[in-house]
Amino acid sequence: MSTPSSALLPDSVGDIHWLASISQDFAASLSMAETLDNAIAQIMVYMEVEAASIFLLNAEATTLTCQACAGAVDIRGLSVAAGQGIVGRAVSTGQAQMVRDVAVDGDFSKKIDELTGFQTRSILCAPLQVKGRMLGALEVINKRAANACFDDADQQLLQALAGVVSLAVHNARMAEALVEQERLRRELDLAREIQRGLLPQAPIGEFPVCGINLPALEVSGDFYDFFALPDGRIVWGLGDVSGKGMNAALLMAKTISLFRCLGKREDDIGRLLATLNDEIAETALYGMFVTMVLGTFDPASGEVRLANAGHQPPLLRHADGRYEEFELAGPPLGVLPGMGYEIVSFRLGDGRLFVFTDGVTEGYREDGTMLGLDGLQAIFDAHARSTASEQLAAVAATLQAGGRRLRDDLTLLAIGR
Amino acid sequence: MRDGVEITSRKSGDFDWLGIAGEVDMHASPQVRKALLDALQPKSALLVDLSAVRYMDSSGVACLVEAFQTARKQGSRFALVAVAQPVLNVLRLARLDKVFTLYASLDEALAGGG
């Protein structure tokens, strides 16, 4: 065997140059698979071995699968149990493994040789890890030169290579996660856009019903809707789906669609609410339910008729500033089919009727105090001479003051001029 | 700081008893949901003691609704016992007190038959 000073030194300088060039390849690469294939081919030639391969652990860390290889046989996609063979030993111990004669190593698994017809004589294997997290292993097999064995210099080089490959795998995975995050982000944006499209368009001119909806997250479980019937009456509704996020948004989409469709056909609003209840109860999942107030407003006579399914009481502000709450309500939609809902009716006169979700009364003002019903009434009073939509905007501004993130979806509906 | 939730269960003759204590919010409700659904056996009777619940949000209410619906499908008896005031306020506001079977005490629940 040659002495370290004469044999290793020139090689080492070459090794460093070669390692640097492989690192640059990784840094410049966008495709992990291509880069690993390219690197493993270079490793086979440079280290003068018959075969080289990279095995990576699956997400559960139960199996090792060959992701890249070079040599006489293609074993990409081939898997072994995480603790199996020399590669498994490198992964489970976190130590490089040098086996000069596999015939005398009890851990050597003949499985791959039997499958491929390849004959393994010696193995050098280094674990791939980043910040203590095991990723897999890098393996080279059979020195090419006759009777040549793996030595410490080979092991040092392979371990250095393992560090570079580990970082490349780690970076590629981070990049993949970012791409996936970006894809989900785009889907959420699309869902939000579609959901906004389900809410009514701002009416043109002076229309006696208006509403606002501000989601706390990307999508909302709250909704409001209104539309005019051929006889001039306006059907309106506001609802709140239990829970938040995508499941609430999907049930919101179902409820608002049913409301819009059935509301044009069913004249009796008590029966309309009962039908909505039966439809939602039929396919209810995870105990999700919807609280909802819906009704009609006849601009000609000023008559309001409303029915309530478990929602907090609608609030009437009379023209003289007095408030009146309508407590009558049945259970929320979707809990139990076959419910009946009673109707309340009254003349609006010059007053305004407000319907809102608990995100409004339980929302926070800039000083950190909860708005409450008193606070909400105080805002309505302060803007009593403004239009209804200006009153709603004032409530939203109060709850968003100081750029605070909303705790809950915020939805209000106002009926009356 | 949330104190979380504590769930105890026991079997006593004809019925299963589940006690829920603490704050049932978005973080605790998956645990409450699992306990309720695990305790519900077909053709059984489940009494849920809510006397030590200090706070319940709509995700907690959804757990009770799902358990109620599951019991109904299974032909099981499901009732809430000694419901603490904060929970009662939430159930009353949503008119769910008209849907659920509520008993003031365990004795009353047992006398309630079923």
UniProtKB/TrEMBL annotation, chain A:
Do you know which Gene3D superfamilies this protein is assigned to?
3.30.450.40, PPM-type phosphatase domain
Classify the source by domain of life.
Bacteria
| Keyword RNA-binding annotated | no
Q: Which GO terms describe its molecular function?
A: phosphatase activity
InterPro entries membership: Bact_Sigma-Reg, GAF, GAF-like_dom_sf, PPM-type-like_dom_sf, PPM-type_phosphatase-like_dom
Q: Which Pfam families match?
A: GAF (PF01590), SpoIIE (PF07228)
The record places domain PPM-type phosphatase at 207-417
Residue spans making up a coiled coil are 167-194
The UniProt keywords, alphabetically, are: Coiled coil, Hydrolase
Q: Does the keyword Hydrolase apply?
A: yes
Record domain GAF: where:
31-179
What is the protein's given name? Serine/threonine protein phosphatase
| Species per Swiss-Prot/TrEMBL record | Azonexus hydrophilus
TrEMBL record, chain B:
| Gene3D superfamilies on file | STAS domain (3.30.750.24)
CDD domains recorded for this chain?
A: STAS_anti-anti-sigma_factors
UniProt cross-references to InterPro entries, sorted A to Z: Anti-sigma_ant, STAS_dom, STAS_dom_sf
Q: Which Pfam families match?
A: STAS (PF01740)
**Superkingdom of this entry's organism?**
Bacteria
Could you tell me which residue ranges the STAS domain spans? 18-113
Q: Which GO terms describe its molecular function?
A: anti-sigma factor antagonist activity
Q: Which family does it belong to?
A: Belongs to the anti-sigma-factor antagonist family.
**Protein name, UniProt field:** Anti-sigma factor antagonist
The organism named in the record is Azonexus hydrophilus
